[in-house]
Amino acid sequence: MAIRFRRDQRTRPVPGRHLDDGRGLHAFGGQVAVCCARCGRAGWVVAQPTSHRWSVRFRCSHCSFAADSGEGVWLGPVSYRGRRPCGYCGHQWVSACLHREAAAQVQVTTVVACPQCGHENVVGLECHRERGNAPRDPHFGMPLALVTTTRAGELWAYNDAHLQQLLEFSRARLRESCYVGNASMMSRLPTWMKLARNRKLVETAVMRLQAQLATLPAVPPLATSPSPASS
User: Which residue(s) pair with 80 in the sheet?
Assistant: First the structure.
């Protein structure tokens, strides 16, 4: 059961209840446990918002792989898209859309046959980051380290605070919200995580990830003056 609740009427947590305070998933993006894009070992992406941007860095303690937001690094899936009129019959449009697991080598053009006349055209491409629904960090696109599979679906989290929110949500017999909208993390959880019959399932999965979190390396400090850039 979920009800609306005014934020200023709640002075302290109430046992058995969970209050959705309206925070989105980005509110937990300051520390993200990930698998290194080079060696696959667990590490931490640390970030800090500055003037509508994120200052982000990653340092792998095992293979010394490094990434910084100032370099415009994206290590996740990408798509290359483009279109142009056919240079032979003028048909609009000759379109191209290519998907790659990583932008290891930038592709700027491809050859596409016109669907009208069949002649091949060189189509210019633009690279776009693919975020999708896969469990990846929002800054560099690396796979998350805190991921587990249940019989109902996949559950993942960025960090300890994220896990704690999910744990409190799963244990609550009454779920409240202090705002109207669908932008909060809780309101956008998968349906199976909200079902009453899956409370114990979600709780067990979260506790499993909390045990895994204890085995991860310590969170490194953010650099004092990293170069700010968009995530």
Answer: 98, 127
Contact assessment for residue 117 and residue 89, using Cβ atoms and an 8 Å cutoff: yes
Strand partners, 81: 97, 126
pLDDT of residue 230: 38
Q: How much is the pLDDT for 3? A: 47
Is-cis flag, bond preceding 93, omega within 30?
Answer: yes
The pTM assigned to this predicted structure is 0.82
For residue 37, give both structure tokens: 């894009």
Q: Which residues contact 225 (CB under 8 A, 6 or more apart)?
A: none
First-to-final CA distance of the chain? 36
d(CA 86, CA 94): 6
Residues 137, 144 contacting (CB under 8 angstroms): yes
- List, for residues 19-30, the tens digit of each pLDDT value: 888 899 999 999
pLDDT at 12: 61
Mean pLDDT (whole number) for 4-25: 70
- Distance CA(207)–CA(143), nearest Å, equals 20
Is 99:110 a contact under the CB 8 Å cutoff? no
Position 70 pLDDT exceeds 90? no
Nearest Cα to 31, choosing from 57, 50, 61?
57
| Strand 17-20, strand 120-124: pairing | unpaired
Amino acid letter, 40: G
DSSP state of 229: B
